[in-house]
Inverse folding.
């Protein structure tokens, strides 16, 4: 893995390392190469080893590779030596077998003790894992451990609720809807103790409706969407448009943070989870009646437009669609910008925002048109 990371281009290398550091276990290539069992290591065959309990870190790498794939990245550079090592590791892993430990026979009286064969457990529970690369993204191959179950809801999700808004103005209807969502038994049953159900915020007559997929760790603490690092970046984007958070409406399809087996990381909501929460989002859109909806990220796009396994974010970004008869523009999620902090990706999102501004009749001045252009 160290060899793999070292031969990535600078930007993907930085993002993968950042993902690993976020998981809290990467201590540097030197520790890994020395075999300190603090992270990834490269064995004598050039294969990839991993200490038990490192699945969260690998998941962070896999999710980053998937995000790169969804953004239209189809190839990752590997040096010839690295590719050869990976192929050798795949071949070796394919021929490896795991056998249960068998007690050694007792030595004959007065004779030497039989030699004990070293096993994976002798080296701190190290198990081999390889990550082949290709246009289909990252794939995992484990020979010594079964593939863990994909995280999902712990209990079945009931059918979606029926939401009928009461009479009244937008402020009264949103207040009623907010109370209903915050008291929703299904939503509350899926929120961890001490955390909160999350409802949208913003202007009741906003022209622009920003829609994400689900709350994260910071959002379920505050009970407000987009307040973490990605939310802070979204606030800056809104400010660059000449607006404030109170001038727009910000919400998520999901009203709770999708359940995870650990407190580290997030997972995309399932189609079933989004289907349950979607009536609440539709009701918010109906009350606010925006001129434009901005879908932030592929998961939000799938939730609003319907799932499509062939859909790539790099292909639909910046192109107009419709949701409930309202123009909808997909763009990258702010968290993607945090992982891909380049002038090019910033410019792509900013061009989408200028489209939104023009669509709702906002002026775009010359200074704004030059944002994130190469100098």
């Amino acid at each position: 893995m160290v060899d793999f990371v070292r031969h990535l281009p600078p930007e993907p290398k930085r993002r993968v390392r950042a993902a690993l550091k976020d998981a809290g276990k990467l201590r540097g290539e030197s520790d890994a190469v020395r075999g300190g069992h603090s992270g990834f290591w490269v064995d004598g065959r050039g294969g990839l080893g991993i200490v038990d309990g490192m699945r969260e870190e690998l998941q962070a790498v896999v999710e980053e590779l998937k995000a790169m794939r969804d953004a239209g990245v189809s190839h990752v550079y590997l040096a010839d030596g690295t590719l050869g090592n990976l192929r050798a590791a795949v071949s070796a892993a394919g021929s490896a077998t795991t056998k249960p430990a068998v007690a050694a026979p007792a030595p004959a009286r007065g004779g030497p003790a039989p030699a004990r064969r070293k096993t994976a457990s002798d080296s701190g529970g190290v198990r081999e894992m390889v990550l082949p690369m290709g246009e289909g993204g990252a794939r995992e191959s484990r020979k010594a451990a079964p593939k863990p179950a994909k995280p999902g809801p712990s209990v079945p999700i009931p059918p979606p609720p029926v939401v009928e808004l009461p009479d009244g103005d937008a402020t009264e209807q949103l207040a009623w809807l907010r109370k209903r969502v915050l008291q929703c038994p299904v939503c509350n049953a899926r929120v961890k103790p001490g955390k909160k159900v999350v409802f949208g915020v913003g202007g009741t007559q906003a022209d622009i409706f920003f829609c994400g997929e689900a709350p994260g760790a910071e959002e379920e603490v505050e009970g407000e969407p987009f307040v973490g690092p990605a939310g802070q970046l979204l606030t800056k984007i809104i400010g660059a448009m000449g607006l404030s958070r109170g001038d727009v409406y910000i919400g998520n399809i999901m009203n709770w943070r999708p359940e995870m087996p650990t407190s580290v990381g997030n997972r995309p909501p399932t189609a079933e989870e989004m289907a349950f929460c979607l009536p609440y989002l539709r009701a918010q859109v109906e009350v606010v009646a925006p001129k434009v909806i901005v879908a932030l990220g592929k998961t939000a796009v799938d939730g609003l437009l319907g799932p499509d396994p062939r859909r790539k974010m790099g292909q639909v970004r910046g192109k107009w669609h419709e949701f409930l008869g309202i123009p909808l523009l997909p763009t990258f999620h702010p968290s993607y910008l945090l992982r891909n902090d380049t002038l090019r990706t910033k410019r792509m999102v900013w061009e989408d925002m200028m489209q939104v501004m023009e669509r709702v009749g906002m002026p775009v001045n010359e200074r704004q048109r030059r944002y994130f252009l190469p100098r």
Remarks:
- The mean pLDDT is 76.
